[in-house]
């Protein structure tokens, strides 16, 4: 399997962590600070790749592949598509509707990090290491096969429910993105005819993106 | 496995916090949405780390489900943002504050 790193080199995963953790945090911080939405999306892809590497280190090659295919591939392409659709050259307004929201957010974020570190220290322990033999015992026969054994036995019903969820999401996206020429929302049909008669047809007002 | 599990958990907490700050300080709806994705991924990392710590696969299954939910959420959320943009000519969340059509 992919996760079968050489057991004779026990320091490998520590090196991998200290190489990829700063990249992940740096990409995330740069994403929040970047002005351009395209840069945000690209930095987020870097962050997703780093997290995929961590999944590999933690003995989950299936989630490694899914992370890259689904997140860095499909979802981020969808994001980039929408960014291009809405126009990339827009300036973000720097007006603060709530006074002092940004400094307060950073302050509360620092408090949240301190809280997480404290909770991990009390609950897990800073130096607690995982039990060895994860790949031999839990991932026996390969991670994908072991995961399928759990997913299709204990989690079979939730798995079927997620398929319903995906169908509902696809239908919802089609309803949202559908043409606005006919009234479809609650409360629109009442005043729609008067608006329609006064204004030019919807197809003329619809600007070309 | 020589890396302590707590390293991954703390990294997950840091990434989650960066995502939270991004949601709070940014005004572009798309960037806010990306920050939410960052938060979801941070939680996925902690789920997989706990799965490794306890020696079971339940955490990985939960992370898998959270990816499915994230995919559905992205589809619906981006459709909402596109519909909002068509109506308001703006992807700024402060422009959509009237709570009416």
Account of the protein in words:
- The complex is a heterodimer of chains A (209) and B (101).
- By secondary structure, chain A is mostly helical.
- In chain A, 68% of the residues lie in helices and 0% in strands.
- Chain A has helices at residues 12-33, 37-57, 61-86, 101-123, 134-137, 143-151, 156-177, 188-198, 202-205.
- In chain A, helix 1 (12-33) packs antiparallel against helix 2 and helix 2 packs antiparallel against helix 3 (61-86).
- In chain B, helix 2 (29-54) runs antiparallel to helix 3.
- The radius of gyration of chain B is 17 Å and the shape is elongated.
- Chain B has three helices and no strands.
- With 101 residues, chain B is mainly α.
- The longest helix of chain B has 31 residues, at 58-88.
- The mean pLDDT of chain B is 88.
- At the A-B interface, helix 1, helix 2, helix 3, helix 4 and helix 6 of A face helix 1, helix 2 and helix 3 of B.
Estimate percent helicity of chain A: 55-70%
User: How would you sum up the global shape of chain A?
Assistant: globular
Low-confidence stretches of chain B: none
Oligomeric organization of the protein chains: heterodimer
The dominant shape of chain B is elongated
Let me know the number of strands of chain B: 0
How many DSSP H or I helices of chain A? Answer: 9
How far apart the termini of chain A lie comes to: 47 Å
Rounded mean pLDDT score of chain A:
81
- Beta-strand percentage of chain A? under 5%
Give Rg of chain B in angstroms: 17 Å
Structural class of chain B: mainly alpha
- Sheet having the most strands of chain A: none
Secondary structure class of chain A reads mainly alpha
Q: Estimate percent helicity of chain B.
A: over 70%
What summary fits the major beta sheet of chain B? none
The topology string of helices and strands of chain A comes to HHHHHHHHH
């Amino acid at each position: 399997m992919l996760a079968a790193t050489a057991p004779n080199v026990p320091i490998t995963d520590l090196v991998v962590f200290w190489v990829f953790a700063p990249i992940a945090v740096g990409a995330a911080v740069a994403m929040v600070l970047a002005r351009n939405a395209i840069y945000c999306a690209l930095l987020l892809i870097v962050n997703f790749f780093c997290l995929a590497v961590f999944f590999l280190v933690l003995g989950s090659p299936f989630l490694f592949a899914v992370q890259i295919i689904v997140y860095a591939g499909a979802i981020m392409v969808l994001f980039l598509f929408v960014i291009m659709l809405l126009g990339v050259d827009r300036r973000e307004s720097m007006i603060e509707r709530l006074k002092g929201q940004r400094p307060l957010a950073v302050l509360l974020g620092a408090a949240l990090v301190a809280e997480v570190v404290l909770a991990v220290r009390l609950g897990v322990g800073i130096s607690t290491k995982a039990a060895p033999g994860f790949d031999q015992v839990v991932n026996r026969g390969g991670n994908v096969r072991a995961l399928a054994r759990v997913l299709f036995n204990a989690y079979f019903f939730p798995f079927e429910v997620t398929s319903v969820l995906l169908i509902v999401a696809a239908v919802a996206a089609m309803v949202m993105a559908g043409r606005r020429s006919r009234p479809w929302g609650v409360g629109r049909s009442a005043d729609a005819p008067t608006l329609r008669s006064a204004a030019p047809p919807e197809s003329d007002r619809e600007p070309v993106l | 496995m020589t890396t302590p599990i707590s390293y991954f958990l703390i990294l997950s907490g840091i990434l989650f916090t960066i995502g939270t700050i991004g949601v709070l300080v940014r005004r572009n709806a798309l960037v806010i949405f990306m920050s939410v994705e960052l938060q979801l991924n941070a939680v996925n990392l902690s789920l997989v780390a706990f799965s490794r710590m306890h020696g079971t696969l339940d955490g990985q299954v939960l992370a898998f489900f959270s990816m499915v939910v994230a995919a559905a959420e992205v589809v619906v959320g981006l459709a909402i943002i596109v519909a909002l943009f068509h109506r308001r000519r703006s992807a700024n969340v402060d422009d959509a504050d009237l709570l009416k059509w």
